[in-house]
């Protein structure tokens, strides 16, 4: 009986096992066709077709789902929108008995999906997702939601040892802009997740628009709070792919690289981000706007130990350092494709030691910003005004340094701005245009601005007045700016050429010192003066020294200036006086001493003008014996009545009044006339004094003046000669000896040229303007060379040697010479 029972039990077990195996085998065998049978009608509703060789099988023996050769295409165009080369998903269901959901294997290989986003509509794998429902009308009453008792947390833990994806291709079209993402490797490892604790590691190796992208993530969370460590690397992403997202740009190109390591901490009150190290590089960047083209060879931006903490939506902590470097930065006009006119260029821009910090407000502190070899406005055009050579840029700077910068949303403070080795060329043509200026705006933009200025504001009612803030309201500005010091260092030159006057004006200015200190619009500092110092030279001998202060942000602005201009040669600015006065300044020198205060629009102060050796003539009086020269006699006689014993005219000009309606008081002029009375007493002294130099000096009483004139014999030259020669040494030796003994004597050096100096025959009047300019230039060179010789060889002060406008002598027997007069 026992044996029968054993055989029956054994038989039943075999039958059950056979049924179990048969059922599992049947499930495995029919899983694919059955699944496809029920899946195809659903796909048909979305206009999709499943490939015939697709395989979807479930293996109940191993609790494994395997999909292969799965492809979806659209019915209309037979376009592939989704495919799976191979997918394997295996579970350990018996682990559920121990509250674990163990996904033993998940692998996905050689897959594809197409995603289309267009005008707010999203289509994934050929299936258009429904649009989100519009927000509920605020006027519609909201039905109360019944609250349920909180449920107990699920005890299960999800365990995923490894989740692998390889060769997954994403074809993304965003508003007709294509993107391609290829995930070469996607690995999610060591994942353990419960409702209270989550941990895992992620590794992605992908191609983003053919650019290598790597991402590493290590997360460890408790109750969704904790640390997420990550590293990301992007190599040479072509940013022209982003052009379609910036319609205001005409062109965008370059490659972007990124390398960053950071930690994100999720907290109950907010988040904290710690960037241990981040480097962003952009090479060969080109950004083309409608009017400008910006190019950079290289941009490097690094961030180190940046900590950003946000609590309850506000920044609670900001600390870190960084730096930025630009190489070969250029801005030029977009429309100019031939001349490549440059608006701005810099060889290098370095922003070192950037410190991110938060006190009352998030702030950025920068140790210094350094621009190397800056160039502003390069036209790359040639011009006859510079001998058919390329026009120089308006401004060149060896270096621009901005030190100790502190910036936040309320304040910008700078310790020092330093301009090193400024070189500027200002060139004006006959039409009074700055010809080496690159015009940024197009003619259409200029017209728009002009129309906007002329057109009335339609939004302002007739008779309506615009309220202006009270002094209390504008006392503390919304944004505070402060600058401790502005300065120019080393050699700073400005070359000025003006062809809008005849003869054209050509002058060189040298800035030896320029400083401005303590400038701020802070309410506490608005009444503090900002002192400045401005020292420099013009050409060789003119110099100026100005000091003062400004208070531009005070309730009543105040400006103070004191100083002097010395040895300003008046013939050099004669071109600007011709049209208004009809006279030319033939010789003379001006010294100015000023002490002026401007309070609001009220001007007051004193100015002293010292005119030395001033003589004028009728415009275009170039010939030596021209009768038209007599037309200047009335002014010369009038000035002669004001000259002191040294031939100077000193004018004291007290200034007072409003800058809107200036009124100037003039005094200390009439008293100078009385000084003429003592001149006659000096005649005997002068005769005895200059007898030893009778070979070069004579005395004469001028017809139109009440004074003796000291007259030197002319210094003859050879045709085309510039520098003094050996045959002139006797004359020059006696002249130097005289000037050294008579320290108060000042002379005028006036060059007289002849047609032979430029290869023309003597005896014919020079009428051609070009030849006149050549003779005038040669005369200036000849007089300047003599002045330099006397300063160097005779140690004579430059202020005692005045230059005048050269004359032309067209008579047949004329010789080149320099006339010397007192």
Report on this model:
The protein is mainly beta. It is built from 8 helices and 39 strands. It has a 30-stranded mixed sheet that branches. Strands 35, 36, 37, 38 and 39 form a 5-stranded mixed sheet that branches. A hairpin with a 2-residue loop joins strand 29 (583-599) and strand 30 (602-618).
Q: Helix amount, in percent?
A: 10-25%
Oligomer: single chain
C-alpha end-to-end distance: 158 Å
Q: How does the major sheet shape up?
A: 30 strands, mixed
* Average residue pLDDT: 80
Structural class, judged by helices and strands?
mainly beta
Rounded to the nearest angstrom, the radius of gyration is: 45 Å
Shape: elongated
Quantity of strands, as a count = 39
Structural key phrases:
single chain, 822 residues, mainly beta, 30-stranded mixed sheet, 5-stranded mixed sheet, 51% strand
Q: Gist?
A:
This protein is 14% helix and 51% strand.
């Amino acid at each position: 009986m026992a044996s029968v029972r054993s055989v029956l039990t054994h038989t039943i077990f075999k039958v059950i096992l056979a049924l179990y195996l048969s059922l599992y085998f049947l499930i495995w065998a029919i899983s694919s066709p059955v699944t496809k049978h029920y899946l195809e009608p659903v796909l048909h509703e979305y206009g999709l077709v499943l490939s015939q060789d697709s395989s979807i099988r479930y293996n109940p023996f191993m609790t494994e789902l395997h999909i292969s050769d799965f492809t979806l295409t659209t019915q209309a165009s037979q376009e592939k929108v989704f495919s799976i080369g191979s997918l394997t998903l295996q579970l350990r269901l018996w682990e559920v008995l121990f509250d674990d959901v163990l996904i033993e294997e998940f692998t996905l290989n050689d897959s594809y999906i197409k995603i289309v986003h267009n005008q707010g509509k999203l289509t994934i794998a050929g299936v258009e997702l429904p649009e989100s429902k519009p927000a509920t009308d605020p006027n519609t009453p909201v039905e109360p939601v019944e609250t349920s008792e909180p449920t107990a947390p699920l005890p299960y833990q999800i365990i995923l040892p490894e989740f692998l994806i390889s060769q997954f291709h994403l074809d993304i079209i965003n508003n007709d802009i294509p993107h391609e993402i290829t995930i070469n490797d996607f690995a999610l490892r060591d994942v353990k997740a419960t409702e209270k604790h989550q941990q895992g590691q992620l590794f992605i190796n992908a191609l983003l628009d053919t650019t290598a992208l790597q991402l590493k993530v290590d997360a460890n969370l408790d109750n969704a709070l904790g640390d997420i460590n990550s590293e990301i690397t992007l190599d040479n992403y072509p940013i022209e792919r982003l052009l379609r997202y910036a319609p205001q740009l005409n062109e965008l190109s370059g490659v972007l690289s990124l390398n960053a390591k950071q930690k994100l901490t999720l907290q109950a009150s907010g988040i904290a981000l710690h960037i241990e190290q981040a480097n962003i590089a952009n090479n060969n960047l080109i950004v083309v706007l409608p009017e400008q083209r910006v190019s950079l060879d290289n941009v490097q931006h690094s961030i180190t130990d940046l900590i950003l903490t946000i609590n309850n939506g506000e920044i609670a902590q900001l600390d870190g350092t960084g730096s930025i470097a630009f190489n070969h930065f250029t801005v030029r006009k977009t429309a100019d494709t031939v001349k490549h006119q440059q608006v701005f260029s810099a060889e290098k821009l370095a922003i070192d030691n950037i410190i991110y910090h938060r006190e009352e407000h998030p702030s950025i502190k920068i140790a210094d910003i350094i621009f190397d070899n800056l160039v502003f406005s390069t036209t790359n055009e040639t011009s006859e005004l510079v001998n058919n050579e390329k026009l120089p840029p308006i401004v060149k700077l060896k270096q621009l340094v901005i030190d100790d910068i502190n910036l936040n949303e309320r304040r910008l403070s700078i310790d020092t701005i330093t301009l090193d080795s400024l070189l500027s060329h200002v060139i004006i043509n006959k039409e009074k245009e700055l010809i080496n200026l690159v015009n940024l705006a197009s003619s259409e933009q200029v017209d728009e601005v002009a129309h906007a200025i002329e057109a009335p504001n339609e939004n302002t009612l007739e008779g309506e007045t615009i309220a202006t803030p009270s002094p209390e309201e504008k006392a503390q500005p919304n944004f505070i700016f402060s600058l401790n010091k502005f300065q120019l260092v080393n050699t700073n030159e400005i070359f000025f050429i003006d062809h809008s006057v005849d003869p054209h004006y050509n002058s060189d200015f040298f800035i030896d010192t320029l400083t401005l200190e303590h400038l701020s619009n802070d309410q506490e500092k608005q009444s503090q003066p900002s002192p400045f110092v401005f020292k420099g030279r013009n050409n060789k001998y003119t110099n100026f020294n100005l000091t003062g202060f400004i208070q531009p942000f005070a309730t009543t602005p105040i400006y103070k200036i004191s100083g002097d201009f010395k040895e300003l040669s008046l013939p050099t600015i004669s071109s600007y006086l011709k049209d208004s006065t009809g006279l030319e300044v033939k010789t003379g020198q001006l010294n100015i001493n000023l002490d002026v205060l401007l309070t609001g629009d009220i001007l007051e102060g004193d100015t002293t003008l010292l005119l030395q050796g001033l003589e004028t003539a009728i415009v275009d009086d170039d010939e030596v014996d021209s009768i038209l020269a007599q037309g200047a006699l009335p002014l010369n006689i009038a000035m002669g009545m004001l000259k002191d014993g040294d031939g100077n005219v000193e004018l004291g000009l007290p200034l007072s009044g409003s800058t809107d309606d200036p009124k100037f008081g003039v005094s200390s002029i009439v008293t100078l006339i009385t000084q003429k009375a003592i001149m006659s007493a000096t005649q005997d002294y002068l005769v005895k004094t200059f007898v030893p130099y009778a070979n070069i000096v004579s005395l004469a009483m001028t017809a139109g003046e009440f004074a003796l004139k000291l007259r030197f014999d002319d210094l003859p030259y050879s045709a085309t000669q510039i520098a003094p020669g050996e045959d002139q040494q006797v004359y020059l030796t006696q002249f130097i000896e005289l000037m050294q003994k008579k320290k108060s004597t000042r002379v005028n050096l006036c060059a007289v040229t002849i047609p032979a100096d430029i290869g023309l025959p003597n005896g014919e009047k020079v009428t051609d303007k070009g030849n006149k300019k050549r003779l005038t230039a040669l005369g200036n060179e000849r007089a300047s060379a003599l002045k330099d010789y006397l300063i160097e060889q005779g140690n004579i002060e430059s202020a005692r040697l005045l230059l005048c406008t050269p004359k032309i002598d067209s008579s047949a027997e004329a010789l080149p010479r320099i006339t010397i007069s007192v």
